[in-house]
Structures are given as structure tokens and as C-alpha cells.
Specification:
This is DUF2442 domain-containing protein. This protein has a domain of 89 residues: NE0471 N-terminal domain-like (2-Layer Sandwich). It has six helices and six strands; from the N terminus they run H-E-E-E-H-H-E-E-E-H-H-H.
Length: 149
């Protein structure tokens, strides 16, 4: 087994500089998370409606999730958000389900997430892309496609 030393000295006193860096890291991590602000069970449709920070929502059919489907109607009505808005909880059953995990279990929602990520990443412009485009423009633009090729 290989010994690995800790990257941070735990005995180091917390200075104002270290505290500011930790707060900045926490804020960055928070921006990366999907935080829900409400969860509601819609019995007529048998959907779990999860409302996100920007008021958009995800509706999940409970019958597709064994951990939700096994709950009674009354238990589903008592589901609450937990862990700072990243999980659905029912404390009486010791149930804590990651919202990201619920979404990831849906093939359709994952295809949507991949399409959104691909679209967003494709529209980003790097320095290399910008310079290449500029060089091509100085040469007369993108070369024309040859007929039949």
C-alpha cells in the first residue's frame, strides 16, 4: 500500500486568506449543483414534481422508480427536500434519494442533458478556434467543397 500525505495541514490556523479561499470554493461548488426548492406529489398523475431554483421543474413518474413506487400514497405526500435541496427525503423510512440520481435514471432526461451539454459546449469559442477562424479569413475564408467529394 502506498502512503499518501495530506495536501492540507489540518493543524494550520485558519487565517482570513484561507477562510476567503474556502468560501470561494464553496460558492463555486454550489453553482455546480442542482438545487431544488420544492417537491410535491401529484396523486392524480402519480408524478413527483421537483421545482428548481429558477422555477423550472422536473416531473417524474413514481412507478418508474422502485423506491418511490413502494411508498404508500400518504408517504409520498410526506416527501420533503433534504440535504440542502439535493435530495428527496422521508425520514420515517430513512429514505434519502439524490435528485441528480433520479434524473440520471431516466434515459430521456439523460439524452436531453447530453444534447444540452453538447449544444452549450459546441457554441463555446476557444482561443485556438478564434485564431484558426481569423487565419482562414485572411486566406479568403473556409475552402470551398469540391463537387463529388
Amino acid at each position: 500500500m502506498k502512503a499518501v500525505s495530506a495536501a492540507i495541514d489540518v493543524d494550520e490556523p485558519v487565517s482570513q486568506k484561507i477562510l476567503k479561499r474556502a468560501v470561494a470554493r464553496g460558492r463555486l461548488q454550489e453553482k455546480r449543483q442542482v438545487l431544488a426548492i420544492a417537491v410535491q406529489y401529484l396523486p392524480a398523475l402519480e408524478l413527483l414534481l421537483i421545482t428548481l431554483e429558477d422555477q423550472s421543474a422536473v416531473a417524474l413518474p413514481v412507478q418508474r422508480y422502485p423506491e418511490l413506487n413502494s411508498l404508500s400514497h400518504a408517504e409520498r405526500m410526506r416527501l420533503r427536500l433534504g440535504l440542502g435541496g439535493i435530495a428527496i427525503c422521508l425520514d420515517e423510512n430513512d429514505l434519502h434519494i439524490s435528485i441528480v440520481g433520479l434524473v440520471a435514471a431516466s434515459e430521456s432526461l439523460m439524452r436531453l442533458a447530453v444534447a444540452v451539454a453538447a449544444s452549450r459546449n459546441g457554441s463555446r469559442s476557444s482561443t485556438v478556434k478564434t485564431n484558426t477562424s481569423r487565419e482562414n479569413g485572411m486566406k479568403g475564408g473556409r475552402p470551398r467543397k469540391l463537387a463529388g467529394g
